[in-house]
Design brief:
By secondary structure, this protein is mostly helical. The protein is built from eight helices and no strands.
Length: 189
Amino acid sequence: MEPMAPSELAPDFDERLAVEQAQSGDQEALSTLYTFYFPRVYRYVAGRVRSTQDAEDVTEEVFLKLVKNLQRYEWRGLPFGAWVFRIARNEVVSHARRQRRRGIPAQLSETMPDDRQDHVAAYELQATIEVVREATAKLPPAQRDVISLRFGAGLSVAETALALGKTQNNVKVLQHKAIAKLQGMVAEE
């Protein structure tokens, strides 16, 4: 499934105009950009960090930096989204560095038991997600970034290439190699 383009938010949505209006202090334009990018950034971040709380915190930091630095953003032939995901990637890397310095805390369950759920299915899904997350963490950084942006954030090949400063062909090759490695690693599990 391809992610929605900013123009799909509303037929007359103009991302460049929204960015320029947000830069001049228009809160509604900023809200429109936030509404479009928040779910995509959150999915990307959640695919790279260990807990929901960390994903929420890192995503919040991304948007705080976006607002703080929006005045300095300049159009240079790249979409605004490439700039947003560069901030997101940098925040994920900073978070990982902080986690390594502190050591990773024990995971606490974030859910309350619910007799209406199929707990076995939920556990199997969580275990599968953890296996894929661990396998993804073992990929080379470039492949890991491509997988996170393509499948975690739902970016297109072109958007991923712009966010990472790579060619579309390079992204396709990295994605192909990463998927092949992941299939091998997950099959071993």
